[in-house]
Specification:
This protein has 149 residues and is of the alpha+beta class. It has one domain: Beta Barrel (OB fold (Dihydrolipoamide Acetyltransferase, E2P)), CATH 2.40.50.100. The protein has helices at residues 32-38, 85-88, 91-95, 120-133, 140-144, and strands spanning 5-12, 17-23, 25-30, 41-46, 51-52, 57-63, 68-72, 77-82, 104-108. It contains 5 helices and 9 strands.
Length: 149
């Protein structure tokens, strides 16, 4: 993928980030699966204007239960924008993490790094494998009876 992407391309990581690529710009967020794993997100900390390498920690996600999770860079580049709408309405990431709940934008250094990421079909298979192996599954009875807590 050494050429510029002219149409929107979406790729996924094994740590449940997604990146939508148009040209050499990318929009980064977390998947619906990540939001389910993390639970109610109350705070996101990502610094704009930071240089990053693929797989490097670029931010922190805090949940209502006090959990802290890292956000990883799907590709190397420079973060140039953070979604200001999340400051006004953090529920965007809880309700639509793969749309208006995006987290940041990045200038991509090397489009060929996208080749190491998964397309949607591969990501769905990866999710199924996680479920089959019992990884990252929340306690289902907790979520079914959440109003009792």
């Amino acid at each position: 993928m050494s050429e510029e992407c002219t149409l929107s391309t979406v790729k996924y990581t094994t740590t449940h980030e997604w990146i939508e690529v148009v040209g050499t710009d990318g929009t980064i967020g977390i998947t619906e699966r990540a939001q389910l794993i993390y639970g109610e997100i109350i705070f996101i900390d990502v610094s704009p204007e930071q240089e990053c390498e693929q797989g490097e920690i670029i931010g922190r996600i805090e949940t209502e239960t006090g959990g802290n999770f890292y956000l990883y860079a799907p590709v190397a580049g420079e973060i140039y924008e953070v979604n200001a709408a999340l400051d006004e309405d953090i529920d965007l990431i809880n309700n639509v993490p793969e749309n208006d709940g995006w987290i940041c934008k990045i200038y991509i250094d090397n489009l060929s790094e996208l080749d190491s990421l998964m397309n949607l079909s591969d990501y769905e298979d990866y999710e199924e494998d996680e479920i089959d192996e019992g990884e990252y599954l929340p306690e289902t009875d907790f979520f079914e009876n959440i109003d009792d807590y």
